[in-house]
Input
Amino acid sequence: MLDLAIIGGGPAGLSAGLYATRGGLKNVVMFEKGLPGGQITSSSEIENYPGSAQILSGLDFMAPWSEQCMRFGLKHAMEEVTRISKNKEGTFHIALAGGKSEEAKSVVIATGSAPKRANFEGEAEFFGKGVSTCATCDGFFYKNKEVVALGGGDTALEEALYLSHICSKVYLVHRRDTFRASPSTIEKVKNNPKIELVLNVSIKKAYGDAMGLNGLIVVDKEGNERDIKVPGVFVFVGMNVNNTILKQEDGRFLCEMDDNGNVIVDLNMHTSVKGLFAAGDIRTKAQKQVVCAAGDGATAGIQALEYVNH
Output
């Protein structure tokens, strides 16, 4: 039986493994079907991780993490976890694709979340080359340039405000003429001279060349088109939380979740189920930053160590 099963191989999962094994747990396995690193490996540049002064691609930035985090005995299983359930005796059943399974004394869920795509033409083609889902990560690369922020919720408007401090102009593109954001945020956006509202339109396509994005064609309900020439588009249309492995056969979740499907945890990353911890983007109120995910993972790893030992 495993002392600890970690589900997910991003910054949170790797950090959990590092702290649990360095603390003394001997039988710790991180289940990650692909190579470790998480969604941050798709980022073109990382420049806001404390202590890492060199600007690196997400792939290069995460490259040394595996070696360091596995130095004390963390094992990587390239297996797909399909469901986690609790056994009567208090241990956990880890169901794997293909009918295999493992048993574990404790579990850290670090499966993260993935930004939703708006699914307009050219979005996938220019993702990482002008299309982004993280203003904090990539906004600085468009300093004093014009960009588009797409969406109508709190995140979209808050990120538009953030980008307005960096960029010369922000076009806030939304398919409706009303927003789902808080009234105070809407007021700030409307009063910001660097933000232009482009409402009641949808993106027809993104266009560019081998160097990256050059602009967007948006169209209103009457079919009128507008060409917005920008090198950057930030898509904020929600997140898909990777929580399916917590769903039980009866459709309920293994632990308590919030209304958006995020795992509810306390400050020590404890879920409502003893021995089950959650770290990183999958937890409620996560900041969606590598440094925060790593901190969550370290906390979860230490707590799992204490749970198994005591």
